[in-house]
């Protein structure tokens, strides 16, 4: 199957007086697994539905391949969409659900049988072809919804939070299967989610949205390690944010926090900002005094399995520190006096 890219140019969309998308520009590569990530109300599902052709007609351009689809009916865009609810017909068998789109397209009966069989084989559910949707588990229903979508051979696959109705363990399994299916088909795919772990583990790249505006585009690692602003830093994982000012002394840069601490930071890259971002795993903790350490008191401790998460009070700030857990390792109790040492080579100035 030929791979098709998507290009969005200066897209604006409103519901009445409420502007939902504001000047969206985006280039999704052919065959890419791309995620729209953001909180509720950020505009991610609206953007997906605009690509599919649902909702108000936006201003701007949406190019699927080299064709501008703005104003086209959904069925003329050759995109496949899997909804959060799966939207299976309850009165039709699995086979009839999967073949529905082909019958609507007046595909000959033998071709329908062959293509439905191939789609069911692809998702591993050929043995359930004669069952009804209410006889399937949530994960099986999701696979049938995928089979029904890919059987019509769309140029682009659109997924609107398809895993949100599954329990936690099944979500992990299904996102792996979803990625495997996408790689096998080579379909350009857009996956909408508010779950950063889902986006991180599936997407080649992602766009983080807030308030109808794309805040940053990049690989999961790029966005986590080098967030463009405080919203992205906070939304993608836990972030410690120190407010203050940078002073440069030759080859050394020091960040003076508002609460009086001094962090030595690399004198390179962007130093124009009033915030330092440090991830919890980039701060080590000990009871022995160390050079450049910040003195603090443990306020709270959480056992997360592979990690121990501490909340530590340092002057007027509360700092989150993650330490790896191993059997027999001593824990710090609430009230313990500790010293924190920051790995500032990973610090980001914003």
UniProtKB/TrEMBL annotation:
Its EC number is 3.6.3.31. This is Spermidine/putrescine import ATP-binding protein PotA. Pfam families: ABC_tran, TOBE_2. It is an enzyme of class 3 (hydrolase). It comes from Roseovarius halotolerans. Keywords: ATP-binding, Hydrolase, Nucleotide-binding, Transport. The keyword Protein biosynthesis does not apply. Residues 6-236 form the ABC transporter domain.
């Amino acid at each position: 199957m030929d791979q098709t890219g998507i290009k969005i140019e200066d897209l604006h969309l409103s519901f009445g007086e409420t502007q939902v998308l504001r000047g969206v520009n985006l280039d999704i590569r052919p065959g890419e697994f791309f995620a729209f990530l953001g909180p509720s109300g950020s505009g991610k599902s609206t953007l997906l539905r605009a690509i599919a052709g649902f909702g108000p007609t936006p201003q701007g351009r949406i190019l699927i391949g080299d064709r501008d689809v703005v104003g086209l009916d959904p069925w003329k865009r050759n995109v496949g969409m899997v909804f959060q609810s799966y939207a299976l017909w309850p009165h039709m068998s699995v086979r009839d659900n999967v073949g529905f789109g082909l019958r609507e397209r007046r595909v000959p009966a033998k071709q329908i049988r062959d293509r439905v069989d191939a789609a069911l084989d692809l998702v591993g559910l050929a043995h359930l072809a004669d069952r009804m949707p209410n006889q399937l588990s949530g994960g099986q229903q999701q696979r049938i919804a995928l089979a029904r979508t890919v059987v019509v051979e769309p140029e682009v696959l659109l997924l609107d939070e398809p895993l949100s109705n599954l329990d936690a363990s099944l979500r992990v399994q299904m996102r792996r299967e979803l990625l495997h299916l996408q790689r096998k088909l080579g379909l350009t795919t857009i996956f909408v989610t508010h779950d950063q772990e889902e986006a991180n583990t599936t997407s080649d790249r992602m766009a983080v949205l807030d308030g109808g505006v794309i805040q940053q585009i990049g690989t999961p690692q790029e966005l986590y390690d080098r967030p463009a602003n405080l919203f992205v830093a906070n939304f993608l994982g836990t972030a410690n944010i120190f407010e203050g000012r940078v002073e440069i002394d030759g080859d050394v840069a020091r960040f003076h926090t508002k609460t009086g601490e001094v962090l030595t930071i690399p004198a390179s890259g962007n130093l124009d900002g009033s915030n330092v971002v440090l991830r919890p795993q980039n701060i080590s903790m000990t009871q022995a005094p160390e050079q450049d350490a910040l003195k603090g008191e443990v306020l709270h401790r959480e056992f997360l399995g592979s990690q121990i998460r501490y909340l530590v009070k340092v002057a007027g700030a509360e700092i989150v520190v993650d330490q790896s857990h191993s059997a027999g390792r001593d824990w710090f109790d609430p009230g313990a006096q500790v010293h924190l040492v920051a790995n500032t080579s990973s610090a980001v100035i914003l």
